[in-house]
Amino acid sequence: MKHIAIIIPRGETSLSNIEASYKMFTKVNEAVERMGNAPLFKVQLVGITPETTLGKGLFTIKPELSIKDPMRADLVVIPATHGDMKEVIAANQDFIPWIVKQYAGGAEVVSLCIGAFILASTGLLNGKSCTTHWLAAGEFREMFPEVKLQPYKVLTDESGIYTSGGAYSSLNLILYLVEKYAGRNMALLSSKMFEIDIDRNSQSPFIIFKGQKEHEDEPIKKAQEFIEQNFSEKITVDQLASAFALGRRNLERRFKKATSNTVVEYIQRVKIEAAKLNLESGRDNVNEVMYKVGYTDPKAFRITFKRITGLSPVQYRAKYNREIAV
Predict the structure, then answer these.
(1) Cα R_g (the chain), whole angstroms
(2) CATH of 218-325, one of 2.130.10.10, 1.10.150.120, 1.10.10.60, 3.10.50.40
(3) Interatomic CA distance for residues 154 and 132, integer angstroms
(4) Backbone phi, psi, residue 214, to 5°
(5) Is 307 helix (H, G, I), strand (E, B) or coil?
(6) How far is CA 10 from the centre of its chain?
(7) What is the pTM of this model?
(8) Which residues contact 245 (CB under 8 A, 6 or more apart)?
(9) Which helix (H) or strand (E) holds 52?
(10) Within the chain, which residues score under 50 in pLDDT?
(11) pLDDT value at residue 164
């Protein structure tokens, strides 16, 4: 039997993460018991204090165990905790050595959504890949530059450490673990019971690209604004370098440092974001949208669009266009 410890951090912790994780593993137990087999999981809540108040006093969780109690977990689950991330980490410092100790003792560790900030603060993610909610990607990169962030992923799995993307995509990670521990058939049954798309593997269709401007490099900000205002035109790196009196190599180096994108990547992201908005709300066909955002090669447009969003332009329009949906 696998011992699963769901930690209850101090602060505005995601009740949905806690409840969904607890329920999915316990429902698997109920299913296997109905088949005449022994339960697979022992699921317990672990806290720093005897009770934790959430939702500005509306909810109280009373963990069964404290981090001071002797225990050896097989899986540690870290739910999302909202608010100022530096304050969240400071409030939950007591969990850090406990999580590290459990991992050293053989436990696997899971972070759900922005629970990745607590996980990263343990140092266990250094040099490893992880994901988190795409809206938190900039702040995460700034706080944990040694972690290989992949915000377009729904989940990552490396060295016994698992992370999930934003919000309810956390369910996909729990389902992934159900499949790992209980088999594909049980995962399929759980996906039907909880109505989860079992094979979803990308957050990309949900990512809204907003140019990263939380930096102090003014010429780069002006270059970003130029790209955003002229995305329908053909823009080259040499053109930008000349316009802002920067050498090409200097521009590329500073642009990458400031935005975490190369110049070409940034131009593509801006064009594809404009295409996404048009496909969501307009009546233009895919070729018309392609020309409006400055592409002339349908193959190049389709490849770039799918690389960034995970869907072809036709699939994206069919799925997210409001009029088509109605």
Answers:
(1) 23
(2) 1.10.10.60
(3) 8
(4) -85, 60
(5) helix
(6) 21
(7) 0.68
(8) 219
(9) strand 52-54
(10) 325-326
(11) 92
